[in-house]
Write a structure and sequence with these properties.
41% helix, single chain, alpha+beta, 155 residues, three-stranded antiparallel β-sheet, four-stranded antiparallel β-sheet, Immunoglobulin-like, Cobalamin biosynthesis protein CbiL
């Protein structure tokens, strides 16, 4: 009975929230148009899911992503715009396009060029978290093995 209780306690302590697919959003201003896309860190895009754009708490645009998880709409305000993608399966992500009168083309090109790097960083962060958890589990197993070995040697 003690072993079962101990096993349940260890299982509950080691259990963590599942992060099957972390969702990200990239958005940029290109003149009077806001364009962007959603992406899952593990790969893939959120196709045909709802997105909304708000500014100062008011919805200014809404729609559904295309087959590649992309969206676009016309800028109707000079204030900052927050774009939200909600897969309605527990995955929600936000991106903010800063207030800008007119964004120079070079800035938009730089943003598009560095976006793959941002996605890679997110993937690496998730991979490191998994490796940290896995390392901790094996550390505990190793320490337990050493303690059991020492206990058996003393008898």
């Amino acid at each position: 009975m003690k072993r079962i209780a101990c096993a349940i306690a260890v299982t509950l302590m080691l259990g963590t929230a599942a992060q099957a697919h972390k969702l990200g959003v990239f958005a940029t201003a290109e003149g009077d148009t806001i364009t962007g896309y959603g992406f899952f860190v593990g790969g893939g895009n959120p196709a045909h899911v709802p997105w909304t754009a708000t500014s100062n708490g008011n919805e200014i645009a809404a729609g559904e992503t295309d087959d590649e998880g992309r969206f676009a709409f016309d800028r109707t305000t000079e204030a900052a715009i927050e774009i939200t993608i909600d897969t309605e399966e527990g995955h929600i992500a936000f991106a903010t396009v800063d207030a800008a009168t007119t964004e120079p083309d070079i800035t938009a090109q730089i943003e598009r060029a560095i976006q793959p790097l941002r996605e890679d960083i997110l993937r690496l962060e998730n991979r490191l978290r998994f490796m940290d958890i896995l390392s901790a589990v094996f550390l505990i197993i190793g320490l337990t093995g050493m303690a059991l070995w020492a206990r058996g040697r003393n008898k």
